[in-house]
Amino acid sequence: MRTFRVIVGGNEYEVAIEEITDKATIAAPTESRSTPAPKANTAPSSGKPAASPAKAAPKVPAGDGTILAAMPGTITEVRVNTGDQVKRGDTLMILEAMKMENEIKAPIDGTVSTIEVSKGMAVNAGMALLVLA
Questions:
Q1: Which residues are CB-neighbours of 94 under 8 A, at least 6 positions away?
Q2: What's the rounded Cα separation, in Å, for the pair 57 and 44?
Q3: Residue 120: partners with Cβ closer than 8 Å, 6 or more residues away
Q4: What is the rounded distance in angstroms from the CA atom of residue 100 to the CA atom of residue 76?
Q5: Which CATH class for the 66-132 domain?
Q6: Domain with CATH 2.40.50.100 in the chain
Q7: Beta-carbon count within 10 A of 37 CB
Q8: Tens of pLDDT, residues 6-41
Q9: How far apart are CA 88 and CA 106, in angstroms?
Q10: Global pTM?
């Protein structure tokens, strides 16, 4: 059995994990302990630097027209075609994630130069959806 420290949402948890092989049996779950999270600028007592928290998918930088998926899901509708002129805030496509429809909107005015996805396609967070020029 190995013990790990996991930080989720700013809360620190101690988790014990047992490797299971085809000959091993599953042990009864034990209660985990929760301790307050360390301050952002303090290092753990082991002397190793603290791991940085997971970051959200990168946002579109100013001047770059590549639009990335913010979360994994399925493209249910593409509302634009290559060559279309779009204004900031126009809905470009619909991304369904966790049974919710999310409108992917144009962050800038521009022309659709390439569409990287199609209706029914599964996408991962950070994947390019389309490019505006």
A1: 75, 76, 77, 79, 101, 102, 103, 104
A2: 27
A3: 74, 75, 76
A4: 11
A5: mainly beta
A6: 66-132
A7: 15
A8: 888 888 888 888 777 665 455 555 555 555 555 555
A9: 5
A10: 0.52
